[in-house]
Amino acid sequence: MLRVNDFDKVAKTPLDEWIKFLKTGEIDKEATAKGLPEARERLRIDTLPDAEKRAYYRDMEALRYQRSVIKTGWDEGHTEGFKEGKAKGKAKGRAEGRAEGEKMKAKEVAKRMKEMGLSVKNIIQCTGLTHEEIEEL
Fold first, then answer.
1. Which of 6, 17, 38, 81 is the residue whose CA sits 20 to 30 A from 57?
2. Any residues with CB less than 8 A from the CB of 43 and at least 6 apart, and which?
3. pLDDT tens column, 50-103
4. Whole domain around residue 25: which residue ranges?
């Protein structure tokens, strides 16, 4: 049995730190006993004015929600959906690359046609480029 009344208010061990907290309701800044940092934070929150306490809990809930959204996105990103999304992304990248390559080739052809003296109208029909794109060559 612990005799709390005989406690001398000088904490030497983790048990002493807890006894001091239970007896005085105070936690030293240097206290390192397991659970005391959490108890210190809880005491700090409990002493806040009501409006600040509500704001604190609202902020904590928003942070929990954000972490949940991020974790859910992370978890889903490491499943089959991620592999499917990656494959779709690669396919889209290839398609964009092909389209860009075709555009570059069309510009090369248009440039040669322009050098040959063909009309812009004919170049547009052959290459599919716009009037502005041909004028820039």
1. 17
2. 25, 27
3. 999 999 999 999 999 999 888 877 666 566 566 777 788 888 889 888 988 888
4. 1-47
132 alpha carbon, distance to own chain's centre: 42
> By the 8 A CB rule, do 56 and 45 touch?
yes
Question: Is 107 within a domain?
Answer: yes
Q: What is the pLDDT of residues 98-110, one digit of tens each?
A: 988 888 898 898 8
Sequence-separated (6 or more) residues with CB below 8 Å from residue 12:
none
CA–CA dist 36, 34 (Å, integer): 6
Q: Which of 10, 28, 47 is the last residue of a domain?
A: 47
Dihedral sign for Cα atoms in the order 115, 119, 123, 129 = positive
Single pTM value for the model: 0.38
pLDDT in tens, 103-137: 889 889 888 988 899 888 988 898 888 888 888 88
